[in-house]
Amino acid sequence: MNRNSQKWGELPTLVLGQIYEYLEPRDRLNASLACKHWRSVLFQKRFFTNFKLKLHVDNDRQCKFFRHTLHHLTSELIIIFDFLNVFHIEKIRRILYKIARCDNLQGLRFQTNSVGLVPPGDISEESLVDIEHRPQELKALTLASIKYDPSHYPMFSMENTLLQKCSTLQVLSLDYDTLTEELLHAIEILPLKKFLISVHGLDRHHRGISERAWSEFSANFNNIELIVSLIYAFEAVEVLQVRILRQNMPITHLRVLFCDYMNVEALEWMSINNNNTLKSIQWIDSAYKHSDKNIMDLFLRSGQDPFVMMSWRCKNLEEIVIHGYVLDPHNIVGISRLRGRTLKRLEVSMIDSTPTEASMDSFIEEINTLLGQKWEPLNLNNVHPALGYLPVPDDVRDEYVFDLIRRDISN
User: How much is the pTM?
Assistant: First the structure.
C-alpha cells in the first residue's frame, strides 16, 4: 500500500499536469490535496485563468502564501485591510513590491473600513510615487473611491504638483471632494483623454467648480471623456443640477448608481445645457426598492419624458441604461425613433405591462427595426442580483459598482 502511494507521488510533473487538464477546477483542487508534489503541480498559470483573490492583510498565513505562491497567478486582487493600522500598511507595501512586475495582474482594489489607502490629510509624494518610481511614465492614475457612508467620511486634499509630474498621464480618476479649481487648472498641461469624477456626499465647505473654470478646462480638452459617477450619493443626487453640473462642463458620461432617487430636473437640465457633449447616461437602482414606481409618475410635473427629450436634444447620445424604474413602452419607441442606429446601447429591465402581449411584440419589433439590432428588455430573473427584486448584501451591490467603474476606466 505504501509502495503504491509512493509511486503515485512520484508521477512526473509533466504527466500530472496533463492529467490535471482533464479535470474540473474543483476536482483539480481536490486532487492537489493528495500530497505535496501533487499540490506543487497545481500552481501553474494555465490552471488559474481569471483568478480573483481577496487577500486579508490581517491573515499572516494567507499573505505569506500569496507572496510565495499566488502573486504571479492572480489576475484580480482585492486587498482588505485597516488603513489606520501601521502594520497593515507595511504588509501592503511588501505585497505591492511583490506584484509590481507581475504581468498577469489586471486589477487591483483596496477594501477598507474607511475612505481608502491614504489616511486623512494631504496626499504626499511619498505615499503615491513611492509605488511608482517614474511618475512621468504613468499612463493611468485612479484615486477615486467608494464611500460606504456618503454622509460621514474624512476629507483629504490633493497636491497639485504631484499630478503635474505625471507628464504622460492619459486617464485620471478623483473623488469630487478632492477636486478644486486650482487642481483643475493644474492638470490642463497633461495629455488627458479620460477624466473620471466620483461623487459621494457633498461637503458644505466645498466651494464647487465655477462655469469659468470648466470653460477653461473645456478649451484645453476638446475631445476628453468626462465621466461623472454618483455612487450611493443619496443627498447629492437631489441637488445634482444645482451643486455639481455646469453648462460649460464637458460631461460625456453620467452614472447614477443606487442613489434611490430619479432627479427629473437634473435630466431636463442636462438635455438643455450639456446637449453638445453628452454621450451616455446610466441611471441604476434596484428593482426591489422601486418596483412600485412607474417612471411616468415622476414626469408629471414636466409633462415630458426627459429621456425622450434628451434623445431629441443630445445629438451625440449613444447609450441609455435605466434600471429600477418602470418605463412606458411608447416612450422607448420614441427614444428609438429619435436616435435610430446612432443609439448603440439601449438597456432597460422594467416596462409597463399594461399593453397586451401582441402590442408588446409590436413595440419590440419596431424598436429592432429602428435600432438596426436585435433588442428586448432584460429579464430581471437573469440580471445581476443587485438589480433584482430581492435585497442583496452590500458586497454584492459593491461588486456590481466596482465592475462598472472598472469598465469605464479601461474601455
Answer: 0.72
